[in-house]
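RETRY 2/3 - previous attempt timed out on the joint model. Re-submitting the same 588-residue input unchanged.
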Amino acid sequence: MTDAPIFVADGIEKSFGGIQAVDGATMDVNRGSITALIGPNGAGKTTFFNLITGFYRPDQGRATFDGREVQGRPPYVIARLGMVRTFQITKALAAMPVIDNMMLAAPDQPGESLRNVIFHPVAWRRREEEVHEQAMELLDVFNLTRLADNYAGTLSGGQRKLLELARALMARPRFLLLDEPMAGINPTLGRRLLDHMQRLRAEEGVTFLFIEHDMEVVMNHSDRVIVMAEGRVIADGEPHEVRSDRAVIDAYLGGSSNGGGE
Amino acid sequence: MIEPLTIPVGVTLEAFTDIDFWTSVGIFAGIYTIFALGLQLNVGFTGIQNFGQAGFMAIGAYTMAILTAEEGMNFWLTLPISVLVTIAFGLLVGLPSLRLRADYFAIATIAFAEAIRLIALNARELTNGAQGIFGFDDSWDSISESIEDFIVDLGWTAVPSLFPLFLVTWGIAVLLMFTLTRVQGTPWGRVLRAIREDEDAARALGKNAFSYKLQSLAIAATIGAVAGWLLAIQLAFVVPDEFQPVVTFIGYVVLVLGGLANYWGVAVGAIILWTVLEGLRFLELPISETKIAALRFIIVGLVLIGLMAFRPQGVFGKREEMVLGD
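RETRY 2/3 succeeded.
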């Protein structure tokens, strides 16, 4: 069982009007791996994320997380199963303090039900204390402690990126999907983030699937690379294999004239 | 050439000491406070643009009045029943339309409220049409008299007849403000604020946004029903005309004056609005009374424009939250 892939997508399709955004994407993600999802702009990577996390409904295909079908289920159900995503354009809850952003994400808070708020005030307050402690620990990891009481909207772009990752971790994911986590953050913080990913994988067995354009990060920090182009998976293998794959080179050179930068 | 100084402008002092008059104004301010607390929950804390609050108010008032005056039911029993009926309508409106984008939801709710008003106007067998319903407030009157007697016993003999209603209205308003503020500070309230900020982010973190929006709407509808009973008692009748869309708009004016995302600000907004609106009745200008009545609204409009220019967050609102909320 532990050797079975944690996530399997089989023939996922989605079209918008006449445009086939995702055209039969098939992939699996190994348990405990750090897998990069790359591809030229418009390859359908973010759309694929939206399809497997419930934000879009696939036209065709199956997706299973830990043996459970997830395609077509609402986002909150998928998140509660332990498959948590972040967004390419950060979704900091701007007019809420950083600490509230963090505490919001904690699972199993009985106080999120109005009935428990009224009838079990002790239970949710106790949970709130635990959650606050966890939140402060995580903020410390990402150097955000001193900003805990600031509104999230006052954070810089890079800090928001970190907050979003820290917030996703508060949800205790087993499978974390990151949409361009390095975009817009400085190299020092980027390294911290990568270190933390490695540590979470080692200590808690968290699996990562991340969309990334920075080839240096992809080649040095992932153990597997999946390449998408025109809505399909065109290559899948270890970083060094993918780098020399003919189809990949063609996709990048033929896809966008500016090459593989952004 | 006009010489401004020769125009007799003044406000009679007796006007401000007329306690019967101000008790009545105070009740309206209290009713609008309660009414707008529901809007605050929806608009200020959940980010859903409920423009149908007058409709929920109408359902609360009509259910209470019809069951008491026409079915002969016990007045106190009609209150919980009218809450249930209002919640049912809240779900009826929310289930199909809360999935819509914010602006379409606003349109759907205003259409709902107008539908309710027009049904009340035309379903004459049930609602007595434009004539309205009377004679549902006997139980209230006896309570009111006991309160009045109690106050007289305390030594204040010139109690205005509406004073007990004033006390009860503001008692309910304060209780609601206190309770809502407390609930807002719980994890439940935090989820609502997250939905206001970014619904997709909340869903991605495992929150069933739709369910929370529905809860928010149902609670606001209930609060609207309470405002409806009090309005019915104050007027001693229920007519469709009292539930025009403008009632909801005035509720929004109260919200904007007091500031978003603050329950106590709602009371401040309502008091300011009604004091300005009713105080201006005593303005002495060399124009007819109907013109003065219209002028009052122009002045309220100017006050709002001034507020937008100098304090857009309202009296109690937080400026950061307004600026940051993209």
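The first helix of chain B runs from residue 13 to 17. Closing ticket.
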